[in-house]
Amino acid sequence: GAGVSQSPRYKVAKRGQDVALRCDPISGHVSLFWYQQALGQGPEFLTYFQNEAQLDKSGLPSDRFFAERPEGSVSTLKIQRTQQEDSAVYLCASSLLWDQGNYGYTFGSGTRLTVV
Amino acid sequence: SQKIEQNSEALNIQEGKTATLTCNYTNYSPAYLQWYRQDPGRGPVFLLLIRENEKEKRKERLKVTFDTTLKQSLFHITASQPADSATYLCALAGNNRKLIWGLGTSLAVNP
Questions:
Q1: What is the mean pLDDT of chain A?
Q2: Chain A partners within 8 Å of B34 (Cβ)
Q3: Which residues of B touch A (CB under 8 A)?
Q4: Fewer CB atoms < 10 Å away: N or C end of chain A?
């Protein structure tokens, strides 16, 4: 597609519920990143994929967070047993090359997760 | 710990003037620095990247400088327009692929 697409745009979850957030990167983009952005803050790194390989998951805040990209295109971020502190905007970004170097990232509009 | 600071206060300027936004960092030696624009309810949009061995980069009305001695980047928008009103984020990267982000500076350009 023309841009990075994320769904759903908004998600309200009851505390303890599992959620799955989807990211469709730009076709052909090798690198895919997930970030978490709290209100009034900059994005915080969660995890990084190069094709289907998850090369860095050091930013995932707990073992309740899990991400996958099984075929090297669409990625899903799953949060199990959601807590109120998980409420944030989850941003997905992709880039053409493994080294996003001169090109920066292309971000989706994010999924706003609210845990009640 | 690594820290990035951007103008903490919102910036209000008059249309046509030059907006200057500041990004300072400590305890970090970035390979490059990026500037993004973010509008409410949207993801960040990439604007410019500058490498550690570059002093200045320009793109249309935008100019970025990078001083690794001062550990500072300045982002300029010349001939500002109300449509430039947004939050501007700086992000630094080392030799890995993670970006470390500032909190952003809110810019309002008044007609």
A1: 93
A2: 104
A3: 4, 32, 34, 36, 41-47, 49, 89, 91, 93, 96-104
A4: N
Residue carrying the six token digits 């957030």: A21
Q: Is the dihedral of CA B68, A32, B83, B3 positive or negative?
A: negative
User: Residue A86: helix, strand or coil by DSSP?
Assistant: helix
B20-54: pLDDT as tens digits: 999 999 888 888 899 999 999 999 999 999 988 89
Among the partner residues B46, B96, B102, nearest to A104 by beta-carbon distance = B46
Please answer yes or no on whether A48 and B98 come within 8 Å at the CB atom. yes
Q: Which of B36, B49, B100 sits opposite A102 (nearest CB)?
A: B49
Cβ pair B103:A40 closer than 8 A: yes
pLDDT in tens, A51-108: 999 999 999 999 999 999 999 999 999 999 999 999 999 999 998 875 655 678 899 9
Give per-residue burial for A82-100: e unless 16+ CB within 10 Å, then b.
beeebbbbbbbbbbeeeeb
Of the ranges A25-29, A33-37, A94-98, B87-91, which one carries the lowest mean pLDDT score? A94-98
Structure tokens at A109: 């509009």
